Structures are given as C-alpha cells and as structure tokens.
UniProtKB/TrEMBL annotation:
Signal peptide: none
Keyword Hydrolase: yes
Organism the protein comes from: Massarina eburnea CBS 473.64
Record-stated family: Belongs to the PHP hydrolase family. HisK subfamily.
GO annotation (BP), single: L-histidine biosynthetic process
EC code: 3.1.3.15
Pathway note: Amino-acid biosynthesis; L-histidine biosynthesis; L-histidine from 5-phospho-alpha-D-ribose 1-diphosphate: step 8/9
Name listed for the protein in its UniProt record: Histidinol-phosphatase
Protein keywords: Amino-acid biosynthesis, Histidine biosynthesis, Hydrolase
Length: 308
C-alpha cells in the first residue's frame, strides 16, 4: 500500500497542473490507497508568488481556498470506495501575521492533518529560483551557512507555535544553494540547530516527511538527507512518505528510489495518515496515524507495477 501525504493541483495552485479530481484518479490508477490533499493556505498580497500577481487578489486567493475545501470534500466522498483520501493543507511561515492566518484556517475548517512547511527566510522565497534565493542569502549575511542557520531558526519558531503533525521537506533550504548535497556536519551552527529542531519534533510526536520531490529536482537524496534521517531515527523519530506532486505526471515519481533510501537510512517503519486510526491530536478528531513495517512495505505489489 503506497502512501503520499503532500500534493497540489493546478486547480488550486498556480505552479501546479491538472484538477484535483484528475490527481485523485491518477493516484487510484497507479495503485495508491492513501492520498492526502494539501493545498497552500491563503497569503497577503506582499507574499504572492509571481504567477499569482496577475490572477489573484487576497480576496480571490482566500476564496480559492474555500473552493478547494468544498471540492476536496466532494472528491473524497466520490472516490471513498477506491482510495483513502485525507484533507489537509500546507502552511507557510513568512511573517508574524502568518500565525494568525493559520489559526484562522484551523478554526474555520475541519481537517485530517496539516503539513508544517516553510518556503521563506527573511520573508523571501528560498525555493522559487536562484535569483530569489540569492536575495535571501544576502539578507541573512551573504553565505549559505548563515542562511541555513536563519532558516532552521525560523523553522523552530513555526514548530513551537504550531506543533504540526507532519513536517514538510525539513531541509528544503539546500535545494538552490551551493551546498545542495552537503551533509551539514561541517556547519556546526547549522547542525546544532537541526538537532535542536528534530529533538523538539520527537518530543511532541511530530512526523518527518520523506519527500521524493528532491530527487525529481536533481538532488542526490530526498528531503531530508541521510544524516538528518539517521539522526532522527536515533531519537525514535517517525516518518511518512510523500511525492509532493504538482501534476499527474509526478504522482509516485521516484518512489522506488525513495524506498531504497528508506532501507539505507535504517528506517524500520513508515507511518501513514489513517481515518480509522485512533486520534492523538485533539485538533484533528477524524484521523490518526498507523504504521507499516518497512519489511512489509517492500513486499507490496505496488513496487513491481509498470508505472514505476
């Protein structure tokens, strides 16, 4: 039974493709039995991405999120006999007002879980393009090491404020850097911050996302990289699988490589969001997390299918 906990559709995300329903239909066709929908939360106009500036206002972006929730509920009901669908969202963490936005979203809607992610440091996107990344690096002091430190400090703020059930692409900051395949161990300030963050995640039972999109974008390893995963394993940390798909062609992409990585990292079990599992987070009464042993995961017929 393959699982993914992170996805976006072109219907509700400006840098994705295909409709939400097409995404679910493709997940079914590829043999997924668990599929989570996690569109981005609304943002103020100063935090719009370039592809949104000509098409949206803050009001229309907020309405788009309303529309997403309505469509997610419809699709979940329509395909409930074929696939387990979880309805969630992915956070941003940009400026102080972001926390209020997230709290409003959690109050207004009912979700199964959410993905706690950050895509900005010093309010500047760090995974959009190289030019924008360099602006963030200059704002942090001019080096990758300083920017990494600031990224993990801002991540810690997000973790403490929200305690997200799942933490998205933990080390996304390396994607556009000059250290994209570094192991971080030669950056003591960075490593200490990552260890601090992972320890906090483990303390409240948070789960790290193993995100295959890093492989799709040319990294040697998924998010998070091997040293981080092994450090979290040593803390008793837990993991879920994700493809972070932004179109039907990305559903399950590089999952065979992700499975190989899981085995090499010494991860003995994989968690997955489950509407039949006991709830341990009062914010999300309709779903919990179950687990499957990696040895059992490997035996599933999904891995021998031609779509991989």
């Amino acid at each position: 039974m393959p699982y993914t906990h992170h996805s976006h559709s072109g219907q509700f995300c400006g840098h994705a493709k295909n409709t939400l329903e097409e995404m679910v239909q493709t997940a079914i066709a590829k043999g997924f039995l668990t599929y989570a929908m996690t569109e981005h939360i609304p943002r103020p106009i100063e935090d719009f991405y370039p592809e949104e500036k000509d098409d949206h206002t803050p009001a229309s972006l907020a309405k788009l999120f309303d529309d997403y929730l309505a469509e997610a509920v419809r699709v979940k009901k329509a395909y409930s006999s074929q696939i387990r669908i979880l309805i969630g969202f992915e956070t941003e963490w940009i400026r102080p007002s972001t926390l209020e936005t997230i709290r409003d979203v959690l109050t207004k809607y009912s979700f199964d879980f959410f993905m706690g992610s950050i895509h900005h440091t010093h309010t500047i996107p760090i995974d959009f393009d190289r030019i924008t990344y360099e602006k963030a690096r200059e704002a942090a002091g001019g080096t990758d090491e300083r920017l990494f430190e600031h990224y993990f400090d801002e991540q810690m703020e997000m973790l403490q404020a929200l305690q997200p059930p799942v933490i998205g692409h933990f080390d996304l900051i390396r994607l556009l850097s000059d250290h994209r395949d570094a192991d971080f161990k030669d950056m003591k300030g960075v490593w200490d911050r990552m260890e601090r963050n992972l320890s906090f995640i483990a303390s409240y039972g948070g789960i790290l996302e193993l995100n295959a999109s890093g492989l799709r974008k040319g990294l040697a390893e998924p998010y998070p990289c091997m040293p981080i995963c092994q450090l979290f394993v040593g803390m008793g940390g837990r993991f879920v699988m994700s493809d972070d798909s932004h179109g039907i062609d990305q559903i399950g992409t590089n999952y065979t490589r992700l499975l190989d990585f899981i085995r090499k990292a010494g991860i003995k079990e994989i968690m997955y969001a489950d509407s039949d599992a006991s709830c341990t987070d009062r914010r999300f009464p309709n779903a919990g997390f179950s687990s499957i042993a990696t040895d059992d995961l490997i035996q599933l017929p999904f891995w021998t299918a031609t779509h991989l």
